[in-house]
Design goal:
This protein has about 300 residues and is an alpha/beta fold. Helix content is about 45%, strand content about 10%. The strands form two sheets. It has a four-stranded parallel sheet. A four-stranded parallel sheet has the order 5-6-7-8. Strand 5, helix 6 (about 145-150) and strand 6 (about 160-165) form a beta-alpha-beta unit. The longest helix is centred in the last third of the chain and has 16 residues, at about 230-245. The radius of gyration is 18 Å and the shape is globular.
């Protein structure tokens, strides 16, 4: 899965035509588009814009995409299970699979209550993904203990969980437990600094895949075929990930916009006004990586 960037035009408005193009390119590359994720600024969007994102996803790729189910709350707010259920239902009604996006209320729960919140959602939603997100991405992110994470395996409607701690060790622990307890459960790596986690049994839902879904698709096909060219693709993409996802991590979205603009896939490198930016000096490195990918794609 690729967490699709939400592009903006020169007037700082969402460029819906460019967004449709990214959705189509992602699906054509063989990846599942994931919208209203951190890459799509979900926590910075108003409800109407989030809903329109879902409408465009359904229109461009049909049912089966993934989408963040977000509850708008603030620090100190109590967890609102009804609001989470409504957010998940909105995703499902549009044909998507909900991904429980971290919130202040969820982050403040005890680990037992955190598992219980997902179990309660599972009683109202027939399929969803959980989501551990490190604080490097958002201040209210949370990565739970392995014991708490194990509780997700007991929820039949929880298809899997995105894991974005940026830690190989924590993800390896989850994979071992998954393999022992529930092999069909998907561990969706969100580790843009270690995209070779697919070699150890993870699936993925990566913001990095938004930069170059065609290259990720080619890499994945090589892996499936046992083609050692997998490692060439992976090395170039990992160079891009290490560069773009350096601190401050949320600024990776600016590099994504500049990279996609350089490739001619979006019309401007603008980002959401509330998102941090990168220096102009990034352009030279991004150009070098883009040229290398173009050579491989050709």
């Amino acid at each position: 899965m690729a967490a699709v960037l939400l592009p903006f035009d020169a007037d700082a408005a969402v460029d819906w035509q460019a967004f449709d193009g990214l959705l189509t390119r992602t699906a054509d590359a063989g990846l599942v588009p994931a919208v209203n994720m951190d890459t799509g600024y979900v926590q910075l969007l108003d409800p109407g814009t989030r809903r329109r994102v879902l409408e465009h996803a359904r229109a461009c790729v049909g049912p089966g995409f993934a989408a963040g189910a977000l509850v708008d709350d603030r620090e100190g707010d109590a967890f609102d299970p009804a609001a989470l259920a409504r957010a998940a239902e909105e995703v499902a009604v549009h044909g998507g699979v909900p991904v429980v996006f971290p919130t202040h209320g969820l982050a403040a729960l005890s680990e037992e209550a955190w598992v219980g919140a997902h179990a309660a959602l599972g009683e109202r939603c027939d399929r969803f993904y959980a989501f551990e997100l490190g604080r490097a991405f958002v201040p209210h992110g949370r990565v739970v203990s392995l014991a708490a994470w194990a509780g997700l395996l007991e929820i039949p409607s929880c298809l899997g969980a995105k894991h974005s701690s940026l830690s190989r060790e924590l993800e390896w622990e989850r994979l071992a437990l998954r393999d022992a307890k529930r092999p069909e459960f998907r561990v969706l790596t969100g580790n843009d600094l270690a995209i070779d986690m697919v070699m150890y049994g993870s699936d993925y839902l990566l913001g990095l895949a938004s930069f170059a879904p065609d290259a990720f698709g080619a890499r994945d096909r090589c892996w499936a075929a046992g083609d050692p060219a997998f490692h060439t693709w992976n090395d170039v993409l990992q160079f891009l990930g290490a560069f773009a996802f350096r601190p401050p991590v949320p600024a990776y979205r600016h590099d994504a916009a500049r990279f996609l603009h350089r490739r001619g896939w979006i019309r401007t490198p603008r980002t959401h006004p509330g998102s941090p930016t990168r220096p102009d000096s990034d352009d030279e490195v991004l150009a070098t990586i883009a040229n290398r990918l173009d050579e491989l794609v050709a």
